Task: structure prediction
Amino acid sequence: MTGRLHGVVAMDGPSGTGKSTVSRRLAASCDAAYLDTGAMYRALTLAVLRAGLDGSDPAAEAVALGAVADLQSVVDPIAPRILLVGKDVEAEIRGPEVTAAVSAVSAVPAVRAALVERQRLIVADAVAAGGIVVEGRDIGSVVVPDAPLKVYLTASEHIRAVRRGAQDRKAGRNGDVAAVLADVRRRDRLDSTRRTSPLHAAVDAVVLDTDELSVDAVLVELLRLVRERGLVS
Ligand code: DC
Result:
Protein backbone atom coordinates (compact mmCIF):
# COMPACT_ATOMS: atom_id res chain seq x y z
CA MET A 1 0.00 0.00 0.00
CA THR A 2 1.26 3.41 -1.04
CA GLY A 3 -0.84 5.53 1.29
CA ARG A 4 -4.41 6.68 0.87
CA LEU A 5 -5.55 8.73 -2.11
CA HIS A 6 -7.44 11.98 -1.51
CA GLY A 7 -9.39 13.58 -4.31
CA VAL A 8 -9.78 12.59 -7.94
CA VAL A 9 -7.39 11.17 -10.50
CA ALA A 10 -8.86 11.66 -14.00
CA MET A 11 -7.66 9.05 -16.51
CA ASP A 12 -8.56 9.65 -20.15
CA GLY A 13 -7.52 8.27 -23.51
CA PRO A 14 -8.69 6.01 -26.32
CA SER A 15 -9.26 2.27 -25.95
CA GLY A 16 -6.33 -0.14 -25.81
CA THR A 17 -3.98 2.20 -23.96
CA GLY A 18 -4.11 0.08 -20.80
CA LYS A 19 -6.29 2.69 -19.07
CA SER A 20 -8.57 0.24 -17.25
CA THR A 21 -5.78 -1.98 -16.00
CA VAL A 22 -3.62 0.83 -14.67
CA SER A 23 -6.59 2.78 -13.28
CA ARG A 24 -7.76 -0.23 -11.29
CA ARG A 25 -4.29 -1.00 -10.05
CA LEU A 26 -3.68 2.60 -9.07
CA ALA A 27 -6.97 2.71 -7.15
CA ALA A 28 -6.28 -0.63 -5.43
CA SER A 29 -2.78 0.40 -4.42
CA CYS A 30 -3.93 3.64 -2.79
CA ASP A 31 -7.13 2.42 -1.18
CA ALA A 32 -9.34 4.43 -3.52
CA ALA A 33 -12.58 3.81 -5.40
CA TYR A 34 -12.55 3.20 -9.17
CA LEU A 35 -15.16 4.28 -11.69
CA ASP A 36 -15.25 3.01 -15.27
CA THR A 37 -17.44 5.55 -17.09
CA GLY A 38 -17.16 3.61 -20.36
CA ALA A 39 -19.06 0.78 -18.66
CA MET A 40 -21.93 3.21 -18.01
CA TYR A 41 -22.15 4.17 -21.72
CA ARG A 42 -21.93 0.49 -22.61
CA ALA A 43 -24.73 -0.50 -20.21
CA LEU A 44 -27.06 2.17 -21.66
CA THR A 45 -26.18 0.85 -25.12
CA LEU A 46 -27.15 -2.64 -23.97
CA ALA A 47 -30.53 -1.29 -22.85
CA VAL A 48 -31.00 0.24 -26.33
CA LEU A 49 -30.11 -3.05 -28.06
CA ARG A 50 -32.41 -4.99 -25.73
CA ALA A 51 -35.22 -2.67 -26.82
CA GLY A 52 -34.58 -3.88 -30.36
CA LEU A 53 -33.06 -0.59 -31.54
CA ASP A 54 -29.67 0.19 -32.98
CA GLY A 55 -27.55 3.00 -31.54
CA SER A 56 -28.43 5.56 -34.17
CA ASP A 57 -32.21 4.97 -34.09
CA PRO A 58 -34.01 8.23 -33.18
CA ALA A 59 -35.86 6.34 -30.41
CA ALA A 60 -32.55 5.23 -28.83
CA GLU A 61 -32.17 8.49 -26.88
CA ALA A 62 -35.39 8.02 -24.87
CA VAL A 63 -34.56 4.38 -24.09
CA ALA A 64 -31.01 5.26 -23.00
CA LEU A 65 -32.23 8.15 -20.83
CA GLY A 66 -34.87 5.91 -19.26
CA ALA A 67 -32.19 3.36 -18.38
CA VAL A 68 -29.96 5.83 -16.50
CA ALA A 69 -31.97 5.29 -13.31
CA ASP A 70 -31.49 1.51 -13.70
CA LEU A 71 -27.69 1.73 -13.57
CA GLN A 72 -25.62 0.95 -10.54
CA SER A 73 -21.82 1.20 -10.56
CA VAL A 74 -19.86 -0.85 -8.02
CA VAL A 75 -16.69 1.17 -7.48
CA ASP A 76 -14.50 -1.51 -5.87
CA PRO A 77 -11.23 -1.64 -7.90
CA ILE A 78 -10.75 -5.33 -7.08
CA ALA A 79 -14.17 -6.32 -8.46
CA PRO A 80 -15.68 -3.39 -10.38
CA ARG A 81 -19.10 -4.15 -11.82
CA ILE A 82 -22.02 -2.48 -13.46
CA LEU A 83 -25.59 -3.52 -12.78
CA LEU A 84 -28.54 -2.83 -15.06
CA VAL A 85 -31.88 -3.27 -13.30
CA GLY A 86 -30.04 -5.08 -10.50
CA LYS A 87 -28.28 -7.62 -12.79
CA ASP A 88 -24.52 -7.75 -13.37
CA VAL A 89 -24.04 -7.06 -17.12
CA GLU A 90 -20.24 -6.83 -17.07
CA ALA A 91 -19.73 -9.69 -19.59
CA GLU A 92 -22.53 -8.64 -21.96
CA ILE A 93 -21.39 -5.03 -22.26
CA ARG A 94 -17.96 -6.12 -23.55
CA GLY A 95 -19.41 -8.11 -26.46
CA PRO A 96 -19.19 -7.07 -30.14
CA GLU A 97 -22.82 -5.88 -30.42
CA VAL A 98 -22.43 -3.30 -27.66
CA THR A 99 -18.93 -2.34 -28.84
CA ALA A 100 -20.29 -1.67 -32.33
CA ALA A 101 -23.18 0.53 -31.11
CA VAL A 102 -21.68 2.39 -28.13
CA SER A 103 -20.11 5.30 -30.02
CA ALA A 104 -23.49 6.28 -31.48
CA VAL A 105 -25.23 6.18 -28.08
CA SER A 106 -22.39 8.06 -26.36
CA ALA A 107 -22.56 10.84 -28.97
CA VAL A 108 -26.11 11.85 -27.95
CA PRO A 109 -25.83 15.12 -25.96
CA ALA A 110 -28.73 14.39 -23.57
CA VAL A 111 -27.30 10.94 -22.77
CA ARG A 112 -23.92 12.48 -21.99
CA ALA A 113 -25.48 15.18 -19.80
CA ALA A 114 -27.42 12.58 -17.78
CA LEU A 115 -24.39 10.36 -17.28
CA VAL A 116 -22.06 13.24 -16.43
CA GLU A 117 -24.49 14.29 -13.70
CA ARG A 118 -24.57 10.72 -12.38
CA GLN A 119 -20.79 10.43 -12.54
CA ARG A 120 -20.34 13.67 -10.56
CA LEU A 121 -22.57 12.31 -7.77
CA ILE A 122 -20.54 9.09 -7.58
CA VAL A 123 -17.32 11.11 -7.52
CA ALA A 124 -18.62 13.43 -4.77
CA ASP A 125 -19.58 10.43 -2.60
CA ALA A 126 -16.19 8.80 -3.09
CA VAL A 127 -14.29 12.02 -2.38
CA ALA A 128 -16.24 12.51 0.85
CA ALA A 129 -14.84 9.13 1.93
CA GLY A 130 -11.33 9.45 0.41
CA GLY A 131 -10.33 9.28 -3.23
CA ILE A 132 -11.34 7.90 -6.60
CA VAL A 133 -9.70 7.06 -9.92
CA VAL A 134 -12.12 7.81 -12.76
CA GLU A 135 -11.47 6.61 -16.27
CA GLY A 136 -13.11 7.61 -19.54
CA ARG A 137 -12.80 10.03 -22.43
CA ASP A 138 -13.95 13.34 -20.94
CA ILE A 139 -13.11 13.07 -17.26
CA GLY A 140 -10.42 15.77 -17.10
CA SER A 141 -12.10 17.96 -19.71
CA VAL A 142 -15.78 17.79 -18.63
CA VAL A 143 -16.72 15.53 -15.71
CA VAL A 144 -14.12 16.71 -13.16
CA PRO A 145 -12.35 19.70 -14.76
CA ASP A 146 -10.79 20.64 -11.39
CA ALA A 147 -9.27 17.19 -10.76
CA PRO A 148 -5.86 17.67 -9.08
CA LEU A 149 -4.30 15.08 -11.39
CA LYS A 150 -5.30 14.45 -15.00
CA VAL A 151 -3.56 11.83 -17.08
CA TYR A 152 -4.08 11.18 -20.78
CA LEU A 153 -2.80 7.81 -21.97
CA THR A 154 -1.94 7.32 -25.61
CA ALA A 155 -0.43 4.54 -27.73
CA SER A 156 -0.14 3.89 -31.44
CA GLU A 157 -3.14 2.35 -33.21
CA HIS A 158 -1.26 -0.85 -33.91
CA ILE A 159 -0.19 -1.42 -30.30
CA ARG A 160 -3.71 -0.66 -29.08
CA ALA A 161 -5.21 -3.15 -31.54
CA VAL A 162 -2.74 -5.84 -30.46
CA ARG A 163 -3.61 -5.25 -26.79
CA ARG A 164 -7.36 -5.22 -27.43
CA GLY A 165 -7.08 -8.38 -29.55
CA ALA A 166 -5.26 -10.18 -26.72
CA GLN A 167 -7.95 -9.05 -24.24
CA ASP A 168 -10.73 -10.24 -26.54
CA ARG A 169 -9.10 -13.65 -27.04
CA LYS A 170 -8.61 -14.02 -23.28
CA ALA A 171 -12.32 -13.35 -22.81
CA GLY A 172 -13.18 -15.97 -25.45
CA ARG A 173 -14.12 -13.47 -28.18
CA ASN A 174 -12.69 -13.18 -31.68
CA GLY A 175 -9.44 -11.23 -31.27
CA ASP A 176 -8.27 -11.03 -34.87
CA VAL A 177 -5.88 -8.04 -34.90
CA ALA A 178 -6.91 -6.74 -38.35
CA ALA A 179 -10.60 -6.69 -37.33
CA VAL A 180 -9.78 -5.12 -33.97
CA LEU A 181 -7.61 -2.48 -35.70
CA ALA A 182 -10.51 -1.55 -37.99
CA ASP A 183 -12.78 -1.24 -34.94
CA VAL A 184 -10.21 0.84 -33.02
CA ARG A 185 -9.95 3.23 -35.98
CA ARG A 186 -13.72 3.47 -36.39
CA ARG A 187 -14.30 4.22 -32.70
CA ASP A 188 -11.38 6.70 -32.53
CA ARG A 189 -12.86 8.58 -35.45
CA LEU A 190 -16.39 8.64 -33.98
CA ASP A 191 -15.24 9.47 -30.42
CA SER A 192 -12.85 12.24 -31.53
CA THR A 193 -15.16 13.93 -34.02
CA ARG A 194 -18.48 13.89 -32.16
CA ARG A 195 -19.85 17.34 -31.43
CA THR A 196 -20.38 16.94 -27.66
CA SER A 197 -17.26 16.32 -25.54
CA PRO A 198 -15.03 14.80 -28.21
CA LEU A 199 -12.07 12.79 -27.01
CA HIS A 200 -9.06 15.04 -26.44
CA ALA A 201 -6.45 15.61 -23.75
CA ALA A 202 -7.30 18.37 -21.26
CA VAL A 203 -4.77 21.22 -21.58
CA ASP A 204 -3.42 20.51 -18.10
CA ALA A 205 -3.25 16.71 -18.49
CA VAL A 206 0.00 14.77 -18.19
CA VAL A 207 0.28 12.85 -21.48
CA LEU A 208 1.83 9.38 -21.19
CA ASP A 209 2.67 7.45 -24.34
CA THR A 210 2.42 3.76 -23.36
CA ASP A 211 3.83 2.20 -26.56
CA GLU A 212 7.11 1.39 -24.86
CA LEU A 213 5.83 1.21 -21.28
CA SER A 214 4.69 -1.93 -19.46
CA VAL A 215 1.69 -1.76 -17.12
CA ASP A 216 4.12 -1.80 -14.17
CA ALA A 217 6.10 1.10 -15.62
CA VAL A 218 2.93 3.19 -16.14
CA LEU A 219 1.86 2.42 -12.58
CA VAL A 220 5.23 3.52 -11.21
CA GLU A 221 4.85 6.83 -13.06
CA LEU A 222 1.27 7.31 -11.81
CA LEU A 223 2.32 6.65 -8.23
CA ARG A 224 5.15 9.16 -8.63
CA LEU A 225 2.64 11.74 -9.90
CA VAL A 226 0.12 11.25 -7.07
CA ARG A 227 2.92 11.61 -4.52
CA GLU A 228 4.36 14.63 -6.27
CA ARG A 229 0.93 16.33 -6.20
CA GLY A 230 0.51 15.56 -2.50
CA LEU A 231 -2.55 13.38 -3.13
CA VAL A 232 -1.63 10.48 -0.85
CA SER A 233 -1.33 10.49 2.91
O1 DC B 1 -13.69 2.77 -22.44
P1 DC B 1 -14.67 1.96 -23.28
O2 DC B 1 -14.08 1.43 -24.55
O3 DC B 1 -15.36 0.90 -22.49
O4 DC B 1 -15.79 3.03 -23.70
C1 DC B 1 -16.87 2.66 -24.51
C2 DC B 1 -17.34 3.82 -25.34
O5 DC B 1 -17.93 4.81 -24.52
C3 DC B 1 -16.24 4.53 -26.16
O6 DC B 1 -16.38 4.22 -27.52
C4 DC B 1 -16.50 6.00 -25.96
C5 DC B 1 -17.55 6.11 -24.91
N1 DC B 1 -17.15 6.85 -23.72
C6 DC B 1 -17.37 8.20 -23.72
O7 DC B 1 -17.84 8.74 -24.73
N2 DC B 1 -17.08 8.93 -22.62
C7 DC B 1 -16.56 8.35 -21.53
N3 DC B 1 -16.30 9.09 -20.43
C8 DC B 1 -16.30 6.96 -21.52
C9 DC B 1 -16.59 6.23 -22.66
